[in-house]
Design goal:
With 447 residues, the chain is of the alpha/beta class. It has 14 helices and 18 strands. It has helices at 119-128, 142-148, 168-175, 177-191, 205-216, 219-222, 241-251, 272-284, 312-315, 376-380, 387-395, 399-404, 415-419, 426-435; strands spanning 14-15, 22-26, 44-45, 50-52, 66-67, 72-77, 80-81, 87-88, 90-95, 154-158, 195-201, 227-232, 267-271, 290-297, 300-307, 330-333, 340-341, 355-359. The protein has a six-stranded mixed sheet with strand order 1-15-14-18-16-17, covered by helices on one side. A hairpin with a 2-residue loop joins β14 and β15. It holds the Pfam family Fer4_9. Keywords: Iron, Iron-sulfur, Metal-binding.
Length: 447
């Protein structure tokens, strides 16, 4: 990765057990609804058991269940803070060492034969396995996108990264290349895609790992929904999903516009993490109960696989200053461009937490100054918006005006905030106008 990314040994992601005896699993794991709580205080649960989900037998409901990552006892059922800073229903499980698990999910078809997967059954299986996409500011929840379908369009799987220097999606693909390929094919089938493009950074570990895995599973590249690896060179702002997808289409020699009707060809972008979750569920029949989290602290990257519900503080152990014992002054969910500050390090990891960034104590935060109208935020905006005016309206409480100026079209890349010479939190104000305090990316509704 360019931009002086921290050093990392790829392919050796650590798998951490439940480092806390108590895991807090929230009913808000991603952009999709999780359904009502299915357990009560005092219940004994097995690993893989549904904690939040639809009524038994009501598998047509739109919610995405949340499963217990461990066996143990339910010691609390009450709302708790999630990593987004909002209160959500939560179940606290006291883990034990028995390791009791539920039976694997039924898979009525051969996982390695994509052409045999019935589309509706595949969507249902992925949903009941708890597969959910990352919060996306422009596309809505995963199953809304799958239901809309692509009608022969293109699915682009991001195996590059979410931000420069923070290659979480690259790590997912490099660590689990076979699951990435299989999950990408499954998502393409479920969305009605004509082809699937796996976008990688040329020559990085994900490129090598996926190339080798595709050679071992050639049917995934030649089946009804062929999976193709697309190698990208350094591209400015390539981490914005829409721009990454457009670059991938260009490199693959595809055009967004149909040759006959002139209408835009449908396009969908998913993260490598979503593909991995889908692929692992298909092969193992096991629901999503863990998350690979990339930790950036003190110039080092570390990838760990942890049970959902693990407190963020436990992931930062060993990242303090060995001489002074200094702790980070600011911890972000995500990276410096798009991440949000954690109000409490005891907040739990959810399925949508891909990265944790710890800012060092030596970092100096400059006070916000008045806008000098230099125009840098306008020049940098990939959506062609006027961030300074949207942020000014939001700061004044004029949310309707901010939305009229295009707040809902913001791609949330963070470029405006990073480049602002006055250190104004432009992205944060735009997000406030776009979602409101009670909303999260991917959810519907107004302020």
């Amino acid at each position: 990765m360019k931009g002086g990314a921290p050093a990392l040994a790829v392919g050796v992601a650590e798998t951490l057990p439940a480092v806390s005896s108590r895991l807090v699993i929230t009913g808000r794991q991603g952009p999709s609804d999780c359904g009502p709580v299915r357990v009560k205080r005092g219940d004994r649960v097995h690993a893989g058991q549904v904690l939040f989900g639809p009524e038994p037998g009501d598998e047509t409901a739109g919610s995405v269940p949340v499963h217990s990552p461990v066996s143990g006892k339910v010691v609390d059922v009450q709302p708790a803070l999630g990593p987004d800073g909002d209160m959500a229903p939560a179940v606290t499980v006291e883990a034990d060492d028995l390791g009791e698990r539920v039976e694997p999910l039924a898979r009525p078809w051969e996982p390695w034969q994509p052409g045999q997967w019935p589309v509706e059954e595949l969507r249902r299986f992925l949903r009941m396995a708890g597969v959910d996409g990352a919060p996306c500011p422009v596309q809505g929840s995963l199953y809304e996108r799958l239901e809309r379908g692509l009608g022969g369009g293109t699915l682009v799987v991001n195996a590059v990264g979410c931000e420069p220097g923070l290659p979480s999606d690259m790590l997912e693909a490099a660590t689990y290349p076979t699951a990435t390929l299989l999950g990408a094919a499954a998502l393409g089938r479920a969305a009605g895609a004509g082809r699937v493009l796996l976008a990688v950074h040329r020559g990085d570990p994900a490129d090598e790992a996926l190339t080798g895995a595709l050679a071992e599973q050639p049917q995934l590249g030649t089946g009804p929904v062929p999976v193709e690896i697309v190698r990208l060179a350094d591209v400015d702002w390539f981490w914005v999903p829409v721009l990454l997808a457009r670059e991938a289409l260009a490199v693959a020699g595809l055009r967004r516009r149909g040759s006959r009707s002139g209408e835009a060809r449908p396009m969908m972008v998913e993260s490598a993490a979503t593909a991995v979750a889908a692929g692992e569920a298909l092969v193992e029949g096991w629901p999503v109960t863990e998350r690979l989290v990339t930790i950036s602290a003190r110039g080092r990257l570390r990838a760990v696989r942890v049970p959902i519900g693990t407190p963020v503080a436990s992931l930062l152990q060993g990242h303090d200053d060995g001489q002074t014992g200094a702790t980070p002054v600011l911890v972000l969910v995500g990276g410096p461009l798009q991440g949000a500050a954690l109000p409490d390090l005891q907040l739990p990891v959810t399925k949508s937490v891909s990265a944790i960034t710890a800012m060092p104590p030596a970092m100096h935060f400059r006070p916000e100054a008045a806008c000098v109208r230099c125009g840098r935020c306008v020049e940098a905006c990939p959506a062609g918006l006027l961030p300074l005016y949207i942020a000014r309206a939001a700061a004044a409480g004029q949310m309707a005006e901010a939305r009229a100026l295009g707040a809902r079209d913001c791609l949330e890349c963070g470029a405006c905030t990073v480049l602002c010479p006055s250190y104004r939190p432009l992205l944060q104000w735009i997000r406030l106008a776009k979602y409101g305090r009670a909303r999260r990316p991917g959810q519907g509704g107004g302020l």
